[in-house]
Write a structure and sequence with these properties.
Number of helices: 7
Structural class: mainly alpha
Shape: globular
Order of helices and strands: HHHHHHH
Number of strands: 0
Distance between the termini: 36 Å
């Protein structure tokens, strides 16, 4: 059970960290190889594919963290029930959209499997590359469903406004970095 909780909380970010670390290491190796030996042919393609995988993993991550692109200030002006209703409607629309993308990602990847196309430098089957869309849209669908359930269950609870969330995030950032430039009381208008 603890493993499932950990995966639910950290899966996307753990994979993205691994992919970005791989990009960093391979690009550093390419720079060293180019300076002292012959240049390798595969690092540019490898890094491109890692970057694409990390982009698709970030879909689920941004939904889970609540960082999807939205107009929060306008929503904050609306009464609570209307704001929550709009959030649920948007969640449903996004859930359907990601489910449609997921379906077409499967169809598209199946076409790549049938074609047998290989990447030019690494000679990796392209279906592996295209399966990043399946994983990304699948995770986005799951995370959007979780967000929809959360919003339905917490319909009557007061949510943080965009300004409150931004201030809270700024305070947490200041606390974690140890920077003592701004007094917390100044950020919150005297309330800490």
């Amino acid at each position: 059970m603890n493993a499932l909780k950990w995966l639910n909380k950290h899966f996307e970010e753990a994979i993205m960290i691994i992919l970005l670390a791989a990009i960093t290491c391979v690009m550093m190796a390419q720079i060293i190889a180019r300076s002292f030996f012959n240049s390798m042919t595969w690092p540019e393609e490898f890094c491109r594919y890692c970057y694409i995988w990390s982009v698709f993993f970030s879909l689920g991550y941004t939904i889970k963290k609540g960082n999807m692109l939205k107009v929060g200030i306008v929503m904050d002006l609306l009464p609570l029930k209307i704001r929550k209703s709009i959030e649920i409607i948007v969640n449903i629309i996004m859930l359907v959209l990601f489910a449609i993308f997921f379906r077409y990602a499967i169809v598209f990847t199946k076409g790549a499997v049938i074609s047998g196309q290989m990447s030019s430098a690494m000679r990796v089957p392209m279906w592996f590359m295209f399966s990043s869309t399946i994983v990304g849209f699948g995770l986005a669908t799951i995370r959007m469903f979780q967000q929809l359930i959360y919003n339905i269950r917490h319909f009557s609870e007061k949510a943080e406004t965009t300004l409150e969330a931004t201030l809270k995030e700024a305070i947490e950032e200041v606390e974690t970095t140890g920077i003592d430039i701004v007094d917390k009381a100044d950020l919150t208008g005297g309330e800490v």
